Amino acid sequence: MLILECPYCGVKADETELHGGGEAHLKRYGPGSSDADFEGYLFHRKNPKGVHFERWRHVNGCGKWFHAARCTATLEVFGTYPAQVTAPPKALINKIKKKRPDWEGWT
Amino acid sequence: MSDVMAPLATVTALPAQGMITIRGNLKDAGFIAAVKSASGLDVPAQRQIVTQKELALAWMSPDELLLLCGYEDAPALTNAMTEAFGDQFAMAVVVSDARAVFDLEGPKVRDVLGKLAPVDMAPGSFGHGEIRRTRLAQVAAAFWLTCDDSARLVCFRSVAQYAEDLLKTSAKPGTEVGYF
Ligand SMILES: [Zn+2]
User: Fold this and answer.
1) Considering only CA atoms, which of B16, B17, B177 is closest in space to residue B109?
2) Nearest to B69 by CA among B91, B88, B92
3) CA B27, CA B31: separation in Å to the nearest integer?
4) What is the tens place of the pLDDT at every residue in B23-65?
5) Short-list A71, A77, A91, CA closest to A12
6) Predicted model pTM
7) Residues of chain A whose pLDDT is less than 50?
8) From the CA of B73, how many Å to the nearest CA of chain A?
9) Can you give the pLDDT at residue A107?
């Protein structure tokens, strides 16, 4: 069972109280972009085995979207953070690097 | 009849309850002052519910409150709130008819809720004065304890029958889990 702490209401919510929103920090390519960029935005995902940054919504709770960093292989949760950012917080990245020295990092 | 045959809690659907959704920045001094002047209540801290006489004010999210009041009082209270907000980026809306309210009473009220919601109902984890928005099996709901052996629960009116059946099933005699 995946348990994520909602950064807005502080609830340790289990997966059944949440709704997954896929990979986080996607750059949107809209009207006027190249076909390749638009295709990448719509379809291309990292889908890693390991550290992954995701969007989640506390749907059966405060209703807010937030971000989470977890390992897709072990379900280890590294942390959660608010939605109003375009990149993971530095402190969280450092924490993950310490735990996973082989991690290629976030880009 | 022996104690064994008593339900874990009695479930009662309550008559229509006045409810007002208030949206705004809960940290903003002007917002806090407006809520206080219109309702007499302080903006509750995260996940808390404060009560005063027939009013209760619940924290729903960082930008949402729920004010519970008498059904007939909701429109006037909402008007007062709107007036107090002035030109602030905040609003109050009557949502009384959107939701149903249940009263749960019995010594095993924590068991009844704990079986249906992914919430740690242990006394040390969930106490008085806290409101929890969560799910009750398949539908969204929110509840809070009104004393050691009673709780209030709100859910959308469209799923009221489902919630009532669920609560009554969970409260069936002899089905206590015995964790709390
Ligand atoms: Zn939340």
Assistant:
1) B177
2) B92
3) 8
4) 999 999 999 999 999 999 999 999 999 999 999 999 999 999 9
5) A77
6) 0.93
7) none
8) 26
9) 78
> Contact at 8 Å (CB) between A56 and A68?
yes
Residues 6+ positions from A73 with CB-CB distance below 8 Å: A49, A50
Please list, in sequence order, all residues whose beta carbon lies within 8 angstroms of the beta carbon of residue B75, skipping any fewer than 6 positions away.
Answer: B94
Token code pair at residue B41: 């209540």
- The helices-and-strands tally (H runs, E runs) of chain A is 2, 6
Exposure string for A52-77, b = 16+ CB within 10 A, e = fewer: bbbbbbbbbbbbbbbbbbbbeeeeee
Contact A92, A71 (CB under 8 A): no
Structure tokens at B6: 């008593």
CA distances from A2 to A51, A63, A78, A80, B134 (A): 15, 18, 12, 13, 16
Ligand 1 center to residue A23 CA distance, Å?
A: 19
For chain B, say whether A62 makes contact (Cβ under 8 Å).
Answer: yes
Chain A CB contacts of B118 under 8 Å are 13-14, 16-17
Contact call for residues A17 and A62 (beta carbons, < 8 A): no
User: A83 touching B, CB under 8 A?
Assistant: no
Q: What is the sign, positive or negative, of the torsion defined by CA atoms of B113, B115, B121, B122?
A: positive
The two structure tokens encoding residue B85: 């907000």
Which amino acid belongs to residue B3?
Answer: D
ipTM over 0.95: no
Burial tier of B29 (Cβ tally within 10 Å: 0-12, 13-18, 19+) = exposed
> Domains plus CATH for chain B?
18-97 (3.30.70.1520), 98-170 (3.30.1360.120)
Structural domains in chain A plus CATH codes: 3-99 (3.30.2270.10)
SS3 B155: strand
